[in-house]
Design brief:
There is one protein chain. By secondary structure, this protein is mostly beta strands. Helices cover 2% and strands 47% of the residues. The chain has one helix and 13 strands. The chain has one helix at residues 9-12, and strands at residues 28-29, 38-45, 54-58, 64-69, 73-76, 86-96, 101-116, 121-130, 139-144, 147-156, 173-182, 192-195, 203-213. The strands form two sheets. Strands 1, 3, 4, 5, 7, 10, 12 and 13 form an eight-stranded antiparallel beta sheet that branches. Strands 2-6-11-8-9 form a five-stranded antiparallel beta sheet, with no helix packed on it.
């Protein structure tokens, strides 16, 4: 078990309150299932998440999970390494859900800090897919200098367009994230950077889950 990436049972096996009754005609569950969910990290790869620098935790009410990064920084300009302008991270998650339910990622909240010189730009983007299915298109959020503040971006999906995990199958869920910084027309010697972490604590990325009952067999 490397770098604390596999959550302990005590952290992952979080219980919630009972699921209230809902009309059988409605396929979408607005509350999480009553039993626990468990999320394990199968693999984590990328320049933005070296081993031991990303961790996953499930919310107490099973409605979201959070990925925390501690070394996710891209920079450009000045004496920056030429390869440092782009950092990425691919998480391959094993999501164990209660029998009779499936899930989809309804939205994702990203946040970090950016220091962009005048003329520089930064970009955050992400894509999502289940094992064996096509990769979704990247959702992109641009930022323009001058900028020196926290940043936040949200990817949202309409209910009708949610991509659900296949019922009765265990399919790993993949999240690809990326941040880029372009020095652009900023003054020579000036460094611009963008993080999904911070000097005074980790920055968390939250993924909000939607739930649905599977058809009765």
């Amino acid at each position: 078990m490397a770098g604390g990436l596999l959550m302990s049972g005590a952290l992952a096996a979080l219980l919630t309150t009972a699921l209230p009754a809902h009309p059988a005609t409605s396929p979408v569950v607005t509350n999480p299932p009553p039993d626990k969910i468990v999320i394990d990290v199968a693999t984590v790869n990328g320049s933005g998440c070296p081993q031991g620098t990303a961790a996953v935790a499930v919310s107490p009410d099973n409605t979201a999970f959070t990925v925390t990064y501690s070394d996710y920084l891209a920079q450009a300009g000045g004496n920056s390494d030429p390869t440092a302008f782009r950092k990425n991270c691919q998480l391959n998650l094993i999501v164990h859900v209660p029998q009779g339910f499936t899930y989809a990622i309804a939205s994702a909240d990203y946040r970090g800090f950016a220091s962009l010189q005048s003329g520089a730009t930064g970009t955050q983007r992400a894509s999502y897919y289940f094992q064996g299915s096509s990769n979704t298109a990247f959702k992109t959020h641009p930022f323009n200098g001058p900028y020196n503040d926290d940043w936040q971006a949200t990817d949202s999906t309409d209910v009708a367009q949610l991509v659900w995990a296949p019922c009765g199958e265990l399919r790993n869920f993949n999240i690809n994230t990326e941040i880029r910084v372009n020095a652009g027309t900023s003054a020579p010697g000036k460094v611009s950077f963008m993080t999904m972490d911070s000097t005074d604590g980790d920055i968390s990325t939250t993924y909000h889950m939607a739930w649905k009952e599977c058809p009765k067999s």
